[in-house]
Amino acid sequence: MSRYRGPRFKKIRRLGALPGLTSKSPKATNPGTPPPFRKKSQYHIRLEEKQKLRFHYGLTERQLLKYVRLAGKAKGQTGQVLLQLLEMRLDNTLFRLGMASTIPQARQLVNHRHILVNGRIVDIPSYRCKPRDIITGREKEKSKTLIQNYLDSSSRKKLPKPNHLTTHPLQYKGLVNQIIDRKWVGLKIKELLVVEYYSRQT
């Protein structure tokens, strides 16, 4: 299944806030009319949690399944390890540093070779950041302008400031201090349900 490129507000209305997908908020339609109540099956509940994770981080179905399998082989609780693996991706780290207003924009910066990790160009959005990594924009004027626009944007101020990252806006630089802690993920997600959804495929 390919990466989602359809209407983003449609997903937000169904799944809730997905700050990685878009920084905008949909306008409420008919606020006085409550949505019809439907009892959800356990499968439906697990599916929605999986979809939240997938659309927030901008992954394909195959990519997310790969991360679930990696998390299952690692030490620790599978759900928490899964979130840590996703949060430490380069595109998500740029987003959390405020160098991009959404994860798709961060992915575009990486793909177009605007980003350096420890002084080297990295053009792979799924690159896994590690503690003590130094992430900077290239010296090119275009790279600096793009990153400065994102750093100045109002959407950046709405994001929680994770303690595992440090931003130096004037130097177009970010530091990875440590692996992210679960409480700083900032996404309302029940990761255990995602693991249960994929339990038959792992």
UniProtKB/TrEMBL annotation:
Region spans: Disordered: 15-39
- Keywords, ordered alphabetically: Plastid, Ribonucleoprotein, Ribosomal protein, RNA-binding, rRNA-binding
Name all Small ribosomal subunit protein uS4 N-terminal domain ranges.
3-87
Q: Please name the Pfam families in this protein's record.
A: Ribosomal_S4, S4
Q: Where in the cell is it found?
A: Plastid
Where on the tree of life does the source sit, at the highest rank? Eukaryota
UniProt domain RNA-binding S4: residue ranges = 88-151
Using the UniProt record, give the first listed, main subcellular location.
plastid
Where composition is biased (Polar residues), the residues are: 22-31
Report the family membership. Belongs to the universal ribosomal protein uS4 family.
The record's listing under NCBIfam families reads:
PRK05327.1, rpsD_bact
Q: Which PANTHER family match?
A: 30S 40S RIBOSOMAL PROTEIN, SMALL RIBOSOMAL SUBUNIT PROTEIN US4M
Q: What is this protein called?
A: Small ribosomal subunit protein uS4c
